[in-house]
# Entry
Amino acid sequence: MSDIIHLLPDSVANQIAAGEVIQRPASVVKELVENAIDAGATTINVLITDAGKTALQVIDDGKGMSETDARLAFERHATSKISTAADLFALRTMGFRGEALASIAAVAQVELKTRQEKEELGVRIEIAGSRVESQEVVSCPKGSSFSVKNLFFNIPVRRKFLKSNTTELSNILTEFERIVLVHPDIAFTLHSNDSEMFNLPITSLRQRIVAVFGKKLNQQLLSVEVETTLVKISGYVGKPESARKKSANQYFFVNGRYMRHPYFYRAVTDAYEHLIPTGEQVPFFLYFDVDPANIDVNIHPTKTEIKFENEQAIWQILSAAVKEALGKFNAVPSIDFDTEGMPDIPVFEQNRPIEPPKVHVDTNYNPFKSEKPSYTRSKVDWEELYSGLERTATVCPPSLMPDEETIGAENTVESIPAQTSLYATDSIERGTLHLQYKGRYILTSVKSGLMIIDQHRAHVRVLFDRYMQQIKQKQSASQGVLFPEILQLPASEAAVLQDIMEDLYDIGFDLSNLGGGSYAINGIPSDIEGLNPVELVRNMLHTAIEKGSDVKEEVQSTLSLTLARAAAIVYGQVLSTEEMTCLVDNLFACTMPNYTPDGKTILSTIREEEIDKLFR
# Structure
């Protein structure tokens, strides 16, 4: 029997490794920029074309490489960061495995130009699919320049599953932000399709945070600083008023490396208990400095999951540090012992005679004696005053009023009598009055029993269908605002906003780009009065980012559902009989009245037989 086990060729092994290390263009940017940082660069420039699918380039002014090092750097497990296994417990660099360049070269066309400071000439190497195509001596600036073209050109399946340019660019900007936030001592620039998106000079940490996320954040940050034998924690946390429902800027860094840590996240959120509404998030930028021997960063290919040796003790230190920052800036409620304005308490004198309090009584006051008013009431005949007005039509409130397209052009809301419904007459009994139960459900009698309708979900379904129809027919009703609201976004979110701008306009939003990640909200949909337009647009944007929707119809559905949830009547809102009738009519005019767009039940029926059993 012949042998069946054999060693994989290096090219195949590199492609398998690339599947773990290089998942998308953002992974390439991350690895190359981290290598530039380890090379001691003070200026790093990132150039992107077509979200990195066509080309991306990272240029640094670091120490560069010799001709031999440049060639060896593309071999698997070739690294200058570690020499022995013991070095893994004293890591202070970003990369260390020696897989990044080999993985990139296995799935792309790579060109490297590099020169050391003391050398007059540098070296240029071209590699495609792990094969060295050329190597020559060239004249180039000090440092290194990596150019990566046609990512996944030899793996069509991987390239096919890349997301849209907007999504991939957003991922690149997210990785870029994580790096620049921890290295304010390095100047960064980033260009996408020849358009400058970041130009960050060397500055302080707080100024770097403000440069990335906007000046508004500067007024919302509280300083955190604590140093113990186990850990040193520094950075900033947001004030309670900076809390958001979604996608607050939350970052943990350990020894200059971004990390995710749900356990430490709980320590921060516990400090804000009773200070912010449930479900909301506050921004924070927290930096841990720990002895490398007490952490393990080698547990995940992306090195974002890090294991701590003293997690419980660090949790308590972190929680105390955040609470101290909140208390120092009076963010935590405290008892006020200031006695200014309070009456003086007399001092007790032992020899002073005690006198009983005197009560003054008005003996002429008679509570049973009534006096005639000095005016006479005028008698008004209300029936005569309102005579001639018809009482047949039931008018829906504006917030519950459907579009003509929703119920048919021949049936307007005002023409629907109070005793008539748009839904099937064989299921709802004529003349039925609706009853609201605990501000949450609408009860109505049907032929088969008792129908219970969730009022909020019903209104979500009605509004969702309306917004989707407005987008498709481009017949949105926009209402201009007297004072435009300003929306400030980081570059990663601004890139996605440009992609959904047309859909926002079709819903009824009017936004104008002010530059620098700032947008003015000049108009809003006509039926969302009372809602915060800035938070509404931000929530729709974050939902689109989380869904990762590349199909236009999915994006439109996501925006419509987010807006419908925000504009729908809330639980606890008391509805009049006319409002309940209008809502039920509009619900059954929808194509799918039984379920919300995300599949939640809107109505349920208790059959008459089940009700009869309760009284037997």
